[in-house]
């Protein structure tokens, strides 16, 4: 040890605790032994009363005083019945000591009235001493044995004065007294060992209970999701991490199939080929990307499966950030090398288009060259924007006023076939965000909505809806359109960089919009509309929360 002290083993601590400590009378074991002691004395009392009422005591025993023996038997039964009623849950050892002393005294008197050692009552004294020493420890228990031994020897001596035949009972009386001490010492040692074993068992049980509670706490607090299912895919156990990842409030006792069919599919694939690494999945549209792994649990004939769920969204996001950072540095390094010849190509194509001698097909080829030159330049500009994005400068914004002003300025550039609607509810809603970055996000989302709405309708429409979320009490802006929406296969990829469904798109608009929201402690996600179309939702930060 660092402080020079040695660790005390558990058994040593328990031995020191038990040594010279009486059995707890308030415990269940102490009360049980006391009830057996009452039952034993009542049984002896009933046997003695039955003996005297049938007048067999005079025939079986060499009575020194039959009348006092008869009265003593009734008194022994009556006092033991009273003690059994009054002394049931003693809190102090004095009650048990008084009871044992009374029992030994009465049996010693009956021993004298019955004629000494030939009556066999001396053997009952040994049993009484032994039972008393289970409940009484140390010197108090030995005092009971001493009282019994003194009573046996003294009463035998006193009996020999009136009954000459009792002179030959001294050896037997001394042997009975010795047996009282032997029984007391033996019972104390055995009870001490038994109590030591019980104390050790209790300590082990407490240690196991503490470890079980600690394991349960660790299981619930760990970020890895853990689910245990039986062979019918019924959930037996799920920790809090698994509930959060799967978007459920409770899983125990439910079938996993309707809750997360993709996870059940991975589980079936693992059953067919355990060596194959399962593919990642999403439990729902807005849920994190999960990497499952499986392990078999077997308890006798019961075969269960342990499922581990790892949230790899953050890892994937970090990988994307590293990828984009590397790409940004690369693009920044070769930007001039690319943009200079790209500008020359675009300028040459423009000059070709202005030539009067250029034929129609050639003019079309020149237009294609110019279009793709602009697209390449846009990709370079977006990547440079990612790598050189300035730090956000959040300001306190009144979203209701700010949104109406944004819509008014945006409508100026719309065509006759495009319209932008604004719906606000509640009182003033405030947040902290960089207004320039918010303009960039909303401009990108509204332009996307108008473009996709125009594919389904001659009049393209987008709605901006501002309200306060009832659950989080945070301001929310929804950007809704009535276009074709996003398919289930594309939904989990729309915020990935360079993912696009448009031939002329760069695939960086939604990614940049989400990055700008996160840099302002806001959150951008996607929800399909029940009536068709798309809904992009921005959850803003609390106005008192600084970025």
From TrEMBL:
<keyword id="KW-0812">Transmembrane</keyword>
<dbReference type="Pfam" id="PF02518">
    <property type="entry name" value="HATPase_c"/>
</dbReference>
<keyword id="KW-1133">Transmembrane helix</keyword>
<protein>
    <recommendedName>
        <fullName>histidine kinase</fullName>
        <ecNumber>2.7.13.3</ecNumber>
    </recommendedName>
</protein>
<dbReference type="InterPro" id="IPR003594">
    <property type="entry name" value="HATPase_dom"/>
</dbReference>
<dbReference type="Pfam" id="PF00512">
    <property type="entry name" value="HisKA"/>
</dbReference>
<feature type="transmembrane region" description="Helical">
    <location>
        <begin position="143"/>
        <end position="163"/>
    </location>
</feature>
<feature type="transmembrane region" description="Helical">
    <location>
        <begin position="68"/>
        <end position="87"/>
    </location>
</feature>
<dbReference type="Pfam" id="PF25323">
    <property type="entry name" value="6TM_PilS"/>
</dbReference>
<keyword id="KW-0472">Membrane</keyword>
<dbReference type="InterPro" id="IPR003661">
    <property type="entry name" value="HisK_dim/P_dom"/>
</dbReference>
<feature type="transmembrane region" description="Helical">
    <location>
        <begin position="120"/>
        <end position="136"/>
    </location>
</feature>
<dbReference type="InterPro" id="IPR005467">
    <property type="entry name" value="His_kinase_dom"/>
</dbReference>
<dbReference type="InterPro" id="IPR035965">
    <property type="entry name" value="PAS-like_dom_sf"/>
</dbReference>
<dbReference type="InterPro" id="IPR004358">
    <property type="entry name" value="Sig_transdc_His_kin-like_C"/>
</dbReference>
<feature type="compositionally biased region" description="Polar residues">
    <location>
        <begin position="280"/>
        <end position="294"/>
    </location>
</feature>
<keyword id="KW-0597">Phosphoprotein</keyword>
<dbReference type="InterPro" id="IPR000014">
    <property type="entry name" value="PAS"/>
</dbReference>
<feature type="transmembrane region" description="Helical">
    <location>
        <begin position="39"/>
        <end position="56"/>
    </location>
</feature>
<dbReference type="InterPro" id="IPR036890">
    <property type="entry name" value="HATPase_C_sf"/>
</dbReference>
<feature type="domain" description="Histidine kinase">
    <location>
        <begin position="333"/>
        <end position="544"/>
    </location>
</feature>
<dbReference type="Pfam" id="PF13188">
    <property type="entry name" value="PAS_8"/>
</dbReference>
<feature type="region of interest" description="Disordered">
    <location>
        <begin position="271"/>
        <end position="294"/>
    </location>
</feature>
<feature type="transmembrane region" description="Helical">
    <location>
        <begin position="94"/>
        <end position="114"/>
    </location>
</feature>
<dbReference type="InterPro" id="IPR036097">
    <property type="entry name" value="HisK_dim/P_sf"/>
</dbReference>
